[in-house]
Design goal:
The chain has 13 helices and twelve strands. It is of the alpha+beta class.
Length: 470
Amino acid sequence: MELNDLPQMDPRALKATSVKAEDEHASSAEPQALKITAASSNPKMFTLPWHKPLATWPEDLLANLPRGISRHVVRFVHVGDEVYAMKEITRQVAEREYEILRRLQKLELPTVTPIAVVTGRHDRNGEPLEAILVTRHLKFSLPYRALFARNLQPDTAECLIDALAVLLVRLHLAGFYWGDVSLSNVLFLRDADAFSAFLVDAETGDLQVQLTDGQREYDIDLARTNIIGELMDLASGRLLPSDVDEIEVGNRLVDRYHSLWSALTDTDKFGPDEMWKIEQRVNKLNDLGFDVDELEMKTAEDGKRVLVRPRVVDAGYANRKLLRLTGLDVQENQARRLLNDLDAYRASTWRDGEELEIVATDWMREVYEPTVRMIPREYRSQIEPAQFFHEVLDHRWFLAEKAGHDVPMGEAVTSYIENVLPNYKLDSKALAELNEEADSGVIDDETTYGGLDDDGYNPDDDPDAAVWSH
């Protein structure tokens, strides 16, 4: 094989950041002065109390949002008009995670957005403090435990698993080895009747040119084990519906992953009279939400069949189409639903022969925008406009079926706001319980868990300690 034929790292990832994390066990000196390396020019960053441990930051800076379980102190902080997630960790880990997240973002993969890494922190007495990794809060997203604290459909666990399987496949296709796959390391966004998953914790990850089958299978097996444990924990807290089989749900991830991986990477064999199946294969991938950039076609050794393998670019087929037509940047299933409504509007207004871009402009002005403007102010931070629109359409269909005739859009919106939207509210007691539980997993908060470093524990001597290798 020629050198030029070997797989190469995507140049977007190679040039993603100036931060180059050193080995976690390196003993280089800590910075003596505060240093902020940021992918944002938000000047309010410099006014934050970096000299204080994160667990002691004043309440007026904090955003009261549900946090997921973490080994580290995590807080949501108001920084000007933005809300950032702050995680207090060692300098090497903070720099490494910032670097990896920057690379994944440049590859347009679904992760939280890295904002900054802050090192060289010291308290007023000159004692060193841990570094802080800053990411942008993913608006409208929730950790999985917060989702189960709400009134959800019985199949929520399966929907989350399906979203995690898609995320894992996308990351593996890009060469990202996760090393710690779990529901706890993901944030979820509602996506029509499904969910979209975003990687939120990349501490153990590694971006490579291409993963081996062994690396992929390790991630999948670890994911299954972690998910079963997390669901059992939910069941013990009576947050999981009693009819959910935790082991079956864990197995579902494995099945869904392998099914999707096969659909995206398998080579098909077609006879000379079956070439129409190539278009069928591409349409199937589009339906799964993936774009096809190239088709590699070559004749089989027997000369009687053609081998076809697609080169998948990325997910977001419907998203990109809707963005081009309307400027709306939404999740994939939401985009598919909005495109369907746009098609229905086009047919109902007898404009099938008209340019779709022109029809889309009128649909935005006459249908979509008047609907989402009706979202009550107190819910505008709780639900995405596209998700609101989708759920109103569902509710309108339910009302029409019950009434036996069509229901005006305005009436459907009013009924939805009164009868369905309140389910999005997470009461203050439930929120407080979730965040207390999230903090219970912290192992590095010295103000609360002092002395943990002095118990003589050495993970290198623990045969049960989780390890991973490239």
